[in-house]
Structure formats: structure tokens, C-alpha cells
Specification:
This protein has one domain: Rossmann fold (3-Layer(aba) Sandwich), CATH 3.40.50.720. The chain is α/β, with parallel strands linked by helices. The chain has a six-stranded parallel sheet with strand order 2-1-3-4-5-10, with helices on both faces. Strand 3, helix 3 and strand 4 form a beta-alpha-beta unit.
Length: about 300
Amino acid sequence: MLSILVPGGHGQLGRELAERASVVRAPGSAELDITNAGAVIEAVSTLAESAAGDGHSPVVVNSAAYNAVDAAETDATRAYAVNADGPRLLAAACAAANVPLVHVSTDYVFPGDGDRPYETDDPVRPRSAYGTTKAAGEDAVLGSGARAWVVRTAWVYGAFGGNFVKTMARLAATRDTVSVVDDQRGSPTWTGDLADGLLALASSVASGDGPTSRILHCAGGGETTWFGFAQAVFEELGLDPARVHPCTTAEFPRPAPRPAYSVLSDRAWREAGLPPMRPWREALATAFAEHGEHFRA
């Protein structure tokens, strides 16, 4: 049996992991600040000791992140502390305690100018402060000497916290029509499926049989645009998808540049024998069937 520590346990992914894992401690940032070296060392040491006492296998799944993409442009110091320094401290503590680490990263480490799904070994060239800090976190984890794996994901939504699906539901309740960009492509990822995938990986690495590839991609199957995603949300809400109108990125300028194309290849994930992610549209329907009350305004 696994004993899992989930930093960032009060976020939308962290809470989903806590719901689905059997033996888990999922502290929020107030309880475990991953930029505090002493707190990190104590948390990982406690995990290792309690797991040994219970005869369990310890593993850390780091879902803590500064993910306010636009705010990071003017708050890069804090973003770097959480997204790069924090993972570095976690990885060092895991290496010292011989605890494997699974670190969650993002599609924003890529430039977003591709025309085919990004492979795990494609060049990393982030264009935003957020992406830059996440790329630094990947480097810190992989260069730490810890038994560590980086899992990139994208377009995450779930029952907990704020996300695109909830935003669309709120706008649907207050506006006749909604304009959504139709020139950015990616793969919506439900936290339920992502959490299951991460737990499968955690089980694999804790058993000593982790994937050879230390970087993996785990995102919803297939691809769409934010416009297509929004129309699907309206359909799940029982509303007319024609109320969603397409627009361009240029019509909605944001402080941080968005990737025009950020579809992630799951080749390494499948080759590792991990459970494939279902098509994003099917996952969205399941998310509404299981947690519809969380997605309605």
C-alpha cells in the first residue's frame, strides 16, 4: 500500500488526489509551504518514517504550483519561489529520505508554435514567466539526484477550485452569448482522470518499477480549441452551444502570451504501460455525470 504526501493538497488537483488515494496527507500551502526548507524536510521525513512503520511505500506527488499565469508576469519572484525553488527543496528532501517524487508540470514549458503533439523530448522554450518558472522547476527536479518523474499536463479542470468549465457555467448564467478564442488548440484534462493516472504512476515508481522516461505527458485524449471546449460545456449544461461565439486571441489580449498549440503526445505514457487517458469529450461528460452540481453556477 502507498503512503502519499500531496503538497498543494487544497488545489483542484490536490483535492482530487486526496479523494481518490487511500492513505494520503494533502496539506495546503498554509500547512506546508514548499518554499520553506525546514518544513519540507520535516514533511518528507515524517512521510518516510510513518510509511516504514506501517509497512507502506512512501511517495510524494507534488501538485503545488503558482498557476496564476497573468499575475506571474509581474510577480515572477513569487512564481519562481513556488514553481522552481519549492520543487528543488522537495526533490532534495526526497533524495535524502530515498522517497520517489512525481512532480506535475505544464504545457506552458513549450513555445506553443508547433503543429503536431509535443513529445517529451521536444525543446523547451517557454514564452511566459509562468512557463519559465515551471521549466526551471522541471530542471531542478530532474537534476536533483532524486528518483523523480515530471508529468506535464494541460487545460486542467475539475470539481474543486476555479477553472474554465466553471467560468463558462457562470457566464452562461449571466450572458446571452459568450465569445471564446478559437485559435488556441489543446487537450482538456479532467482532474479525475489525471489523478487516476498520477496514482498509477505513483504506484509504479514506489514499487521500484518506474518508467525509464523521467518526463511523461498526461492530458485528455484528442484536441480542440477553447471555443470547442466551451461549446461542449454548454451542451453538458443543457444549453444551446450556438450561444458560444468564436473570436481570436488578438481580440482578447492578456498580459501573458498563450500557446497557440499545446497538444501533448502521450507516447511515453503509453510506452510506460500506464492507463491511457480517455478522449476529452468523453471525460467531460463523465465529469458532469459525477460532479455536475460543482459545475453549475
